[in-house]
């Protein structure tokens, strides 16, 4: 159930229309909250990520933002890729912490090093957005195109931005 939670919150972040209802139904199951809390407080990084993401998605209000941020930090310290990415999103947006885009990129580099395609896409997007008049390199465009063909909504948005601005050979 905890892994299902993690997938649903990721799907919500990527704009899945069905995920919120499915997640809501999941977290209403008897014993769910107790199981999540027990696993998160036992330093299970998947549960820590899931609980923090539930708070970020406003499905849970038992934790403060500060507590959720701490859970993400603990998950990230255990090399939990989604925890690292979410922690990066917190720094990038300034949610629960002072905004620090360089720190976000550093976290995404770690997740990229752990093999996360999402982290690599976020790094490419971050570079494109920094200097929108500078065309991304062909390798970055190729990665976005491949990821787009594999269904990455984030890559599709990045390619659309490149097309809109006439950047690269998207």
Descriptive notes:
- This protein has helices spanning 2-13, 19-27, 32-41, 45-56, 65-77, 81-93, 101-113, 117-130, 138-149, 153-165.
- It is globular, with a radius of gyration of 17 Å.
- With 170 residues, the chain is mainly α.
- It contains 10 helices and no strands.
- Helix 3 (32-41) crosses helix 4 (45-56).
- The mean pLDDT is 93.
- Helix content is 71%, strand content 0%.
Structure annotation, total helices: 10
Distance between the termini: 39 Å
Low-confidence stretches: none
- Please state the structural category: mainly alpha
Strand content: under 5%
Overall body shape: globular
- The proportion of residues forming helix, as a percent range, comes to over 70%
- Oligomer state equals single chain
Mean pLDDT: 93
Tally of strands: 0
Order of helices and strands: HHHHHHHHHH
Main β-sheet: number of strands, strand sense, barrel status? none
**Rg over CA atoms:** 17 Å
Task: Write the SSE topology.
Elements: H1 2-13, H2 19-27, H3 32-41, H4 45-56, H5 65-77, H6 81-93, H7 101-113, H8 117-130, H9 138-149, H10 153-165
């Amino acid at each position: 159930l905890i892994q299902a939670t993690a997938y649903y919150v990721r799907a919500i972040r990527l704009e899945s229309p069905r995920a919120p209802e499915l997640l809501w139904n999941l977290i209403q199951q008897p014993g769910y909250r107790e199981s999540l809390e027990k696993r998160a407080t036992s330093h299970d990084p998947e549960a820590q990520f899931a609980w923090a993401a539930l708070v970020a998605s406003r499905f849970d209000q038992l934790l403060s933002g500060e507590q959720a941020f701490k859970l993400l930090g603990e998950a990230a310290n255990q090399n939990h890729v989604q925890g690292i990415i979410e922690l990066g999103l917190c720094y990038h947006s300034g949610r629960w912490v002072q905004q620090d885009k360089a720190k976000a990129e550093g976290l995404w580099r770690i997740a990229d090093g752990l093999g996360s395609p999402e982290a690599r896409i976020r790094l490419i997007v971050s570079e494109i957005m920094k200097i929108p008049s500078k065309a991304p390199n062909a390798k970055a465009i190729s990665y976005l195109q491949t990821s787009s063909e594999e269904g990455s909504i984030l890559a599709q948005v990045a390619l659309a931005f490149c097309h809109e601005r006439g950047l690269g050979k998207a």
